[in-house]
Structures are given as structure tokens and as C-alpha cells.
Design a protein that fits this description.
With 706 residues, this protein is of the alpha+beta class. It contains 19 helices and 26 strands. It is globular, with a radius of gyration of 29 Å.
């Protein structure tokens, strides 16, 4: 089957298919298509006459397609063009004609290879495992190409010479091994290798390369992200390991599972976001029903009264955690709660608040109607839910390739995680805010009903968030078997409540500045697992789970958690903390273990405060490694008392020293997270560290202001 598609010249496409012996190449005629619908005073005939002479247009025909889920087929212009890149340019010209919204375009912003597959019916799932060559290099700066490490078939080679020799060495290895996939540590390796030589270079199955997209920064949900430039070489898929969420989270097997579901070829599935893959799956379902894909979302939110808006805008339900350390705790999770709500309650953009059943009030607390006619969204999600359950069953039973099953199950999990939030995303192709609100309303009802049932059977809920509940036996009450209670809740909700884990103990942290419970900061030890194993402890929200935390601080906090679980003694935890402080003071920590990784939110000149982040950005710029918003910078604080770039050293500079006082502060902060559930705050920890004589509990402060 075709696993990679190139577009070497207008009007043609080249399909590359994997075979048992290698690869096959086939050139076919191809003209991408998009569609135009006229509304109001718009005239399809006028648009057709205007665009026919355009050099990029090869055909203009009138066809009938559905512009939405609740629409009948409507006359539209089907416009065929010479290249995929011409689609967006022509669509922009057409939509700018007439009054705003007079002409609407469909099937415009599909990625190139995905467009080809859905338009021609090609399945891009490889029919054998692709051969992978991994190429890794240090960050590429003004100095150009540096040593490249290549790994394939279990063998590793290092190319360390002048840039031209490195590039030719990589080219020779590719010719020797004939990989199907180039997995790169950074996409910038592609232009760097080509720039290093005079003349042609062959990284693909034919010479040359194409830049598909330039690097860009963006903001999403308050976070700044960075999308690096993307490249393609003929006949091979490029996977940028630095720009592939799915490679990092699911491995190649997970990506291949998504290729089969979405029909996004391997290279595009690898760089795609979760929402992008989910949208591709929805697009396949829509096109199968002759529903076209809107270019820009124009679905306005329906009018709501103030009271309805207040009720609808509450989000999911979260119980305030009972701060402290709890013994004998059990975790229960609803299986894929939000996707199952969509399937069991028939929540879909075209069913919620339908015009055909205005008198129904199906959504609790909101009074929205839900059409009984089957929605498209459950048809999209139910196979994902069923397949993930089957993969998990096979993993538990030891059937099949465990690594492949785990990768596929993880890939589906991420799609299911995003499907709910995507309904509220303003740019979602088929999203709708009323769907988002309805799902939350059902989820709140389910969680509250579950809590009431658990308490009726003698179980106290100590925390609950989104789809998870933590319970412990009520004192002086007889408990019903938890499995039987879970079955009762399952029957009532129509969604399976699963027993997730038992904990010997679990600690819920207070917020840093008061005694209220922090919703997503907790840690605990799973029952029946070794107390000295890191994997035995679940932790969320604390420093050991934060990407920016230095490896040394992570190791220290995990050791403090183990000490706390073993002794339940704040004094013992502080004594253990002292050993890490002493190591810092003695210079007994490798600086690389103290590296801080932070994401950049602005360009260096846009910062007004002189922070360690800014100092690191200045040093990176000095080395020709300027960081763009959304990228990460790694550095070690070498002297926090200095000003400017002298405060830090980049990891790539191989620093030999560090600021022990700075990292001691970070250690104590991590220790405070461990001891806060026991009522011990930062001030008490400092007191204990300063006083080796008074080790009693009275040495500790218990409040945020002590």
C-alpha cells in the first residue's frame, strides 16, 4: 500500500509503496479539488466564469454535496487545480469576492498527502514494518553541522568530521541501508546536510528536498508553542523526533495505528497534533456521508439566557481534596468517561439542541434537547473505545506483541482524551460549544450520583476529579464490597466504573499559600508494590512531575517521598534532605544533573525582567542558537548573584560548576511539597535544617505564616 506521496510537478503525484523486497514507485495524474458554495446573492455561474481562465485551474464543474450534517445536497462548484498549494490561494480569492460569507469554500485546508488519500481512496497504511534510520545531532547553530550519530538495525555509527564529509557519510549510509523512514532529532538536519555540500545530495530515493512549512510560534490555551520547519525528501517519510508528540508518547507502532484510522500517511501522522488526527478521522467519516469539510468555522453559539449560560459554563466536576495523608485508599476510574458520554447519550454537533425536537429536555441542568437520530460523533468514537478496550484486554492476557498493543492503546487514549475538549475549540471543523456544555453536564451528574452511592455503602470520597474518585472506608460504618458498589454505579451510569488501584497511603497537598486543597497535587504508594521502587509511587503536580525540574531535584524528591512513606516522620525526611544539601555543598553533583529545561514564551528582547531564563536566552543567542517562542532552553545556574548571561551556562557548554545556594532553595521547595500534607511548611523545614539538636516535632511550623 502507498505509504508516502510526493508531488514533483503540477498535475502529477508519485506514490511510493512498500513491498516485501523494497519499494515501488508509480506516477499518476492528480488534480486536487475544493468546493465553493454560494449563499445570499452569490452566483456560482459568476465565480465559475471568473476562475476558469486562471492558470492553476484545470476544471470547474457543478456538483451536489452536503455542506453540513443536517443539510441536503446543495449545488456547488467543484474546482480542480494543478497543485495542492494552489487550493488555499484560490479559495482566498473566491471568499474575498462579494459580501462576507457570500461564498464559502470546503475541503480547503487539508494537508497534502492526506488530501491525496481521501480524494483518491488510497489507504496509506504500510503493508510491512518500515525500516527506520535514526539520525541525531546537537542543536544546529551558526557554526553549521556538527557530529551526527546514525542508528539502524541495532548498529550505531558516528560521523565526526567537517560538515561536507559528514553529509556525504550520511548519504552513503542511506544508500547502503535503504531506509523507509528517516527519524531525525531535529528537522533542521535536512537543510543542514544539503547546505554542507556542493552539488546534489540524495537523502531520499531521488535527489533534492522540499520545505513544506516554515518555523512558526503560536499560542494555544495560554501556552506558547513552537512548530519547527517541516521538510520532505522523495520516497521516504521524515519523522522529526523533536516535533512528534505521538512518537514520544506512543512510539512508531502507535503512529501506524493512527495512520490506519485517519488515513494520514506516516510522515503527516507523526507531526500531527492530537486534534489534527482526530479531525482527520472525523473528516473521513464526514466525506463517507458526503458531508464536505468547512474551511473556517462559522457556527455561532446559540443565544442563551444568563441563568443557562451560568449553568452551562461550569466545566467538569472536581471535589475539593481532603488535605492530609490517608490510609487504605482505593482509586476508581470511569472508563473513557467523556467519549462514553458522547456515545451513550448520543451527543454530537448535529443532535444537541436539534430543531426537530425543541420540546425535549435531555441534558441535566441545561434543558438542551438531544435528537434520537444517531449522531455521527458516536460512530467516530465507538470503534476507538472498543478497540482500546480490546487492546488492553489482550495486553492483560499476554496475547500478541505487547509493545505494539501498548503503543496502539496509548495512541487511541490520547485521541479519546482530546475529543471532549475539541468540541469546545473555536476552530474545530465539526465542534460545537453546546456539545461541550452537554458533556460536562452529564459528567457532573454522573460523578455526583457516584459519590452519593459510595457514601451510602460506607465509603468516603476523599478526592474526585474529571473521571476519577479516591475513596477510603468510613469510620464506624460497614462497607459494601467495592466491586459490587462499582457494578451498581456502572449500571446506573451506563458507563463502566473500573477499579484502578489500591494505595497503602496517599497524600493530598494543600495550596502553597493557604490550607485549601490543591486539586491536582498529590502522591501516594500503591499497595503490594516494593517500597524502594520509584514506580511504586504515583505522583501528580509536584516537582518530580514537572518538565522544568532538574534531574537531581527529581531524584531527591522521590527519595524524600520514599522516606516519608517508610517513617511518616518529618524529622526523618529532613535528615534525608540534609544528605542532598550536603552533596550540593560539597560539589558532589554533576552539573548536568542540575540542568533546568524551560519553555520560552517570548523573544529575548521582549522580556522586561532579568531572569535566569533571559540569561540563558542571551547565551544561546551568543552561540548562534537563538530560541524562538515555544522552544525550550536548557541551562545550569552557575552564580545567581551575578547579572545577565553570567548567571547561567547552557548544557551544551558543559558547565563545571553550579550555584549550591540556588539549588538548595529548589531542594527545600521540593521537600515542602512532600511534607505539606503532614502540616509542615517551608519555615519548619528550614528550622530543622538549621538545628541538629532539636529534632522534635515542635521544631516545625504548621501554617503558611509560621
Amino acid at each position: 500500500m502507498t505509504y508516502c506521496v510526493d508531488f514533483p510537478e503540477p498535475g502529477t503525484a508519485v506514490e511510493w509503496s512498500l513491498t516485501a523486497s523494497g519499494v515501488e514507485r508509480e506516477t499518476v495524474a492528480y488534480h486536487p479539488r475544493f468546493y465553493v458554495r454560494a449563499t445570499g446573492a452569490g452566483s456560482l455561474a459568476e465565480i465559475a466564469d471568473a476562475i476558469r481562465p486562471h492558470p492553476a485551474v484545470t476544471a470547474v464543474e457543478v456538483e451536489h454535496h452536503r455542506p453540513g450534517w443536517r443539510h441536503e445536497p446543495t449545488p456547488m462548484l467543484a474546482v480542480a487545480v494543478t497543485t495542492p498549494d494552489a487550493v488555499a490561494r484560490l479559495a482566498s480569492t473566491i471568499t474575498s469576492a462579494g459580501r462576507p460569507g457570500e461564498y464559502r469554500c470546503f475541503n480547503v485546508d487539508l494537508s497534502r498527502q492526506f488530501r491525496y488519500c481521501v480524494e483518491t481512496g488510497v489507504d496509506p497504511t504500510p503493508n510491512r514494518s518500515p525500516r527506520v534510520l535514526r539520525l541525531a545531532a546537537p542543536p544546529i547553530g551558526d557554526a553549521g553541522l556538527e557530529p551526527v550519530t546514525a542508528t539502524t538495525g541495532g548498529e550505531t555509527r558516528c560521523f565526526d568530521a567537517d560538515p561536507a564529509t559528514i553529509a556525504r557519510g550520511v548519504e552513503a549510509l542511506i544508500e547502503e541501508t535503504e531506509p523507509d523512514v528517516l527519524e531525525l532529532s531535529t528537522g533542521r538536519l535536512v537543510p543542514a546536510l544539503f547546505d554542507a555540500v556542493d552539488g546534489a545530495l540524495r537523502l531520499g530515493r531521488e535527489p533534492g528536498y522540499t520545505q513544506l512549512a516554515a518555523a512558526s510560534s503560536y499560542e494555544s490555551y495560554g501556552q506558547v508553542g513552537h512548530s519547527p520547519a517541516r521538510y520532505a525528501v522523495p520516497g521516504r517519510a521524515i519523522v522529526d523526533a523533536g516535533n512528534s508528540f505521538f512518537l514520544r508518547e506512543t512510539g512508531t507502532e502507535g503512529i501506524l495505528d493512527l495512520v490506519a484510522r485517519s488515513h494520514k500517511p506516516l510522515q503527516e501522522a507523526a507531526w500531527a497534533s492530537i486534534g489534527n488526527v482526530l479531525t482527520a478521522i472525523q473528516i473521513r467519516e464526514a466525506l463517507a456521508r458526503d458531508v464536505l469539510v468547512p474551511w473556517r468555522s462559522w457556527r455561532a453559539e446559540r443565544f442563551k439566557t444568563a441563568s443557562t449560560l451560568a449553568a452551562a459554563d461550569r466545566g467538569g466536576f472536581t471535589f475539593s481534596p481532603a488535605v492530609g495523608v490517608h490510609e487504605d485508599v482505593h482509586e476508581l476510574d470511569f472508563s473513557s468517561l467523556y467519549p462514553n458520554i458522547m456515545c451513550t447519550r448520543n451527543v454530537s454537533p448535529e443532535t444537541v439542541c436539534c430543531d426537530c425536537h425543541p420540546d425535549r429536555e435531555d441534558v441535566p441542568g441545561l434543558g438542551y434537547s438531544i435528537c434520537p437520530e444517531p449522531g455521527y460523533l458516536p460512530d467516530v468514537l465507538q470503534p476507538l473505545i472498543d478497540d482500546r478496550d480490546e487492546y488492553k484486554r489482550r495486553i492483560r492476557a499476554g496475547e500478541g506483541d505487547t509493545e505494539a498493543l501498548e503503543g496502539a492503546a496509548s495512541a487511541i487514549k490520547w485521541i479519546l482524551v482530546s475529543c471532549f475538549g475539541y468540541q469546545g475549540f473555536s476552530n474545530a471543523k465539526f465542534g460545537r460549544i453546546e456539545c461541550h456544555e452537554a458533556i460536562n453536564a452529564f459528567a457532573r451528574e454522573i460523578l455526583l450520583d457516584a459519590k452519593a452511592t459510595l457514601e451510602r455503602h460506607g465509603w468516603r470520597v476523599v478526592h474526585g476529579i474529571v473521571d476519577s474518585l479516591w475513596v477510603t472506608p468510613m469510620a464506624d460504618r460497614e462497607q459494601t464490597d467495592l466491586g459490587a458498589v462499582a457494578e451498581e454505579i456502572t449500571d446506573g451510569a451506563g458507563i463502566r466504573l473500573e477499579y484502578e488501584a489500591a494505595y497503602d497511603w496517599i497524600a493530598f497537598c494543600p495550596r502553597r499559600n493557604d490550607d485549601a486543597g490543591a486539586l491536582t497535587r498529590y502522591f501516594g504508594k500503591r499497595a503490594g508494590e516494593p517500597a524502594d521502587e520509584t514506580a511504586s509511587y504515583k505522583r501528580r503536580g509536584i516537582e518530580a512531575r514537572q518538565r522544568s525540574t532538574s534531574p537531581f531535584i527529581v531524584d531527591a524528591q522521590l527519595a524524600l517521598i520514599r522516606e516519608f512513606g517508610r517513617t511518616r516522620s518529618p524529622e526523618a525526611v529532613c535528615e534525608r534532605l540534609r544528605t542532598f544539601v550536603d552533596r550540593l555543598r560539597a560539589g558532589d553533583v554533576a552539573p548536568s544533573r542540575l540542568a533546568i529545561t524551560n519553555r520560552v514564551s517570548k523573544r529575548v528582547e521582549e522580556y522586561s525582567q532579568s531572569t535566569t531564563n533571559v540569561a540563558a536566552l542571551e547565551r544561546a543567542a551568543d552561540l548562534g542558537l537563538e530560541k524562538r517562542p515555544g522552544q525550550s532552553v536548557e541551562y545550569v545556574v552557575v552564580d545567581d548573584e551575578k547579572a545577565g548571561r553570567a548567571r547561567v551556562a547552557l548544557v551544551r557548554e558543559d558547565p563545571t560548576q553550579y550555584d549550591a545556594d540556588y539549588y538548595r532553595d529548589r531542594l527545600c521547595r521540593a521537600a515542602a511539597s512532600v511534607l505539606a500534607p503532614a502540616g509542615v511548611r517551608r519555615e519548619g523545614i528550614e528550622t530543622q535544617l538549621a538545628d541538629r539538636v532539636d529534632g522534635s516535632l515542635s521544631a516545625f511550623g504548621t501554617g503558611p505564616d509560621d
